[in-house]
Automatic annotation (TrEMBL):
Lineage: Bacteria, Pseudomonadati, Pseudomonadota, Gammaproteobacteria, Vibrionales
Cited Gene3D superfamilies: 3.30.70.920
UniProt key word Transmembrane: no
Name of this chain's protein: Chaperone NapD
Keyword field: Chaperone, Cytoplasm
Assembly information from the UniProt record: Interacts with the cytoplasmic NapA precursor.
Natural source organism: Photobacterium sanguinicancri
Gene that encodes the chain: napD
Function: Chaperone for NapA, the catalytic subunit of the periplasmic nitrate reductase. It binds directly and specifically to the twin-arginine signal peptide of NapA, preventing premature interaction with the Tat translocase and premature export.
Amino acid sequence: MALDEVHISSLVVHVKPESLAAVKAQILEMPNTEIHGESKEGKIIVVLETENQGYVTDTIDKINNLEDVLITFLVYHQIEHFDSQSEDDS
């Protein structure tokens, strides 16, 4: 029986307000990223849906290394397990 998992994470990314649009575009170029909100003060809410936890930490590092990003922090992380064999049978 094969068990798979999905990691759902949310991040808050604080950027220089004048760079909000550029940083959002760069984040959306990364696989498995969605933006669910922003503020004029330069805060962006990012949601990740990935297959493993390593991708979450790698993405945080990549976002932190973007020009004009002040800080990125993990707000929420949930792991959902499901049986891929059962889904294939239905």
